[in-house]
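Re: [help] complex structure
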Amino acid sequence: MPINKIVASFDQAVADIEDGAVIMVGGFGTVVSIPSLLLEAIYRKGVKNLTTVSNTSGFGADVWRMQEAPFPEDMDILVRNERIKKAIVSAPVSALYVNNFEKLLRAGKIEIEMVPQGTLAERVRAAKAGLGGVYVPVGIGTVIEEGKEKKVIDGREYLLELPIKADFALIHARKGDRWGNLVYRGTSRTFNPTMAGAARVTIAEVDEIVELGELDPETIVTPGVYVDRVVARPKIAPAEEAEITDARAIESRRRYEAEIEDSIKAAKERGLRHD
Amino acid sequence: MTDNLQGKQRLDRQIIALRVAKEFQDGEVVNLGAGIPMLASNFIPAGREVVFHAENGVLGFGEVTLPGEGDLDLVNAGGQTVHAQPGMCFFGHDESFAIIRGGHLDTSVMGAYQVSEKGDLANYMIPEREVGTIGGAMDLAFGAKKLIIAMNHTTKEGEPRIVKKCSYLITAPKCVDLIVTDIAVIEVTDRGLVLKEVAPGWTSEEVQSLTEPTLIVDPDCHDIELM
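Output below.
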């Protein structure tokens, strides 16, 4: 019987995610890199008390609507609806403005385990690779070392960092086939291939499903063996003309635009830029 | 004395970034943090080829694009769209941090809230909010061969950010090599902090009065040169 990991809908893809599950969420934090529609489906399903493993804790859909991203929901959809009990995360808050995660953190409504980004990647990879842990030099002499076994190897101190295992890994890829082979696009690769295979069930949200054999075997990034389900985004983004109301998003965009324009002007004045 | 210095002209963010960029050597692999450091990607000195690395899995990207003109799948670690460039490549997160942690980066530039005279760095707890975001800062501080800090010399209230001992939680101990501020360029050495350059119109005594540890004034200390 042909292998077929393709599932028909996002709701079907997350149907067995239950309250209290540990879920990894791929991507960097920019909405185009994350499994946005799987997060929406989890929200719709109504599960709560989740433990999440992710790089950021979301910025809110308006930040991404301002960039005209077709699917604007990020981790914030689970944060603001208080579906998360504990977050294992590298970059939970923003220096630019107070996100909803920070509000819940201050209110004591969410637990956090903050992990240096590279250590997060390695702990996830350790789970995927069947390792009992990894010795990492990062964090020595900081709060990260508290309660961890130390070992000196070749004169340098390391911390034992344990694997992070999950029930589900939700990732986003550019293209996938029915075996679960995946390719990514640009800087939207990030944590997606790292998390593929690090959970009991890996679900890939793809922009496009292609026929088996269409992906060049030399350039497949995630071997299908790591992937259990593949679900495709709708071809055309839903026509969304939502009004952008988040003042934080508007202000941070305004500052960003002003600073970049200043910078390009300054560089041109000095003959350092030619576009 | 400090009060008299409050109104004195300091370098703006673009000029600090311009001074930072002067440190990029031909052929170096450089990671730029959010804020002032990212601006330095627009100011590579003429004639030098520099390869930029970003935590989100890219080496060899180009300048930041005008807002709204870029590809959302091609961004730096601050989420700003950048130009594609010949030679550029992408990779996953474990690989990206193998590059950082494994000592394959020449230079990392970050912002900071405090730097100590020993070169300890504090830049992840947001002081007035008592929350923080580690992100890639610890990996970069431990991994880069050379760490440059770009920041304002004092807090908004005029308190020194260069201190004897960091009062905020530290990102990494003894990791900073060079501090570029809005009034000075200071090198962290085994002897202590060496004042190398001052902003135009500033004296070494004035910089010292806004710095907690005692500075060693380099015999060759001069005005900041940008090009």
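DSSP finds six helices and 15 strands in chain B.
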